[in-house]
Amino acid sequence: MTKIKPMLNLRFCICFILLLISSLINYNSLYNYYKDNFNQEIIKEENIEEKFKKENIKIQEEQFYSPSPKIELNSLSALLMDGENNRVLYEVNGYQEMPMASTTKIMTCIIALEAGNLNDVVTVSSYAAGMPDVQLHIKAGEQYYLKDLLYPLMLESHNDVAVAIAEHIGGSVEGFATMMNDMARSLGCNNTNFVTPSGLDAEGHYTTAKDLAVIASYAIKNKDFITITNTPTYQFKELKKGRTFSVSNKNKFLYMMDGAIGIKTGFTGKAGYCFVGALKRSDRTLISVVLACGWPPRKNLKWADTKQLMTYGIENFEKKQIFEEVNLDPVYVEDGQRAYIGLDIKGDLNLLLGKNEKVSIEYELPKSLYAPVEKGSKVGVAKYYIDKKLYTEIPIFTTEESKKIDFNFCLKKIIKLWSLQY
Known about the structure:
Layout: H1 4-25, H2 27-37, H3 48-62, E1 77-82, E2 87-92, H4 105-115, E3 121-123, H5 126-129, E4 143-145, H6 146-155, H7 159-170, H8 173-186, H9 209-219, H10 223-229, E5 233-237, E6 244-248, E7 260-268, E8 272-281, E9 284-291, H11 301-316, E10 317-321, E11 331-334, E12 340-341, E13 343-344, E14 350-354, E15 359-364, E16 368-370, E17 378-386, E18 389-398, H12 407-421
Parallel strand pairs: 11-16
Antiparallel strand pairs: 1-2, 1-9, 3-4, 5-6, 7-8, 8-9, 10-14, 11-12, 13-18, 15-17, 17-18
Helix pairs in contact: 2-12, 4-6, 4-7, 6-7, 7-8
């Protein structure tokens, strides 16, 4: 009995070694065997990208396209923007670099709100006090709360106040201009350059209607900014001698349309009359910009153009969800322990869409992937076009992982097959 047990152990070891050697020698054949017999699925591989392209072309061919109506404007540059996502809805020379006069003060105000303390005490310099009209007539050495100065800045567009704020926040006009340009770049406004905090004509001081609308869209998200720009009248005092001031809002647009919330007028000899407007309703936020909208005595044209732009945005656009819920076919994984892995796409594209605008979608996906593939990997995108112009891209992710086929995996599969057979 004692001799039989070692013999059985010896035979077991010999069999196991032979099995291991055989498996090593035939690894390639086992690997191919697995791919041929275990890695097959009922799913048929399709070129998903071509499939969706054909569907979109078919839809577009079935739809009748008519261009959006044009607006007769006086402005040399004008633009209407969806304030919720910064999509341009209408523009005339909206990307052309232009002087912008005191609409510059939108940026001056928002930087003061974010970088300063409303209870800061601002001491007026002789340089600030010497700024040309329009002026509050503050004097060198006088002191004011920063909060109080923001009202004459935005309601009556005083240039001496703008420089006093800039020197307090930025240390100098040049330092503050750097802050203005840094913020512009952070907002993606790459066709804008600030030289002054007031907007007085200066070499190299310019923006575009598009960039200015983006800046305004950002500014109106600040509650303090809205409070200031929507205030009808404001009274305050100088801190040392108690001189009193009263300023009133010069923005007539606030009373022209329901939901009007701002924002800023401007005029210089070079820029002409300018205005940035904002309108907020339950289903939309609109930003309008008009630049070079006439010269004296035609100061009221900016209101007419603004109203036309806003009316166009209200009458010709509706809020729609354009994100398409779609079941994407699984993608094949070359050399993967899991032959096919699932794909998923999630999004929310609830936006203002013109009545004549057409949405098309292109899905860019690989025909196959190469193992290993991790769960949650970005493997493609859905490109959303509005009237054939790219609006946005939404990523497509894997919902599963697939490790690369290795010897241990093949061996387990073969042993499992043998066990089922015998």
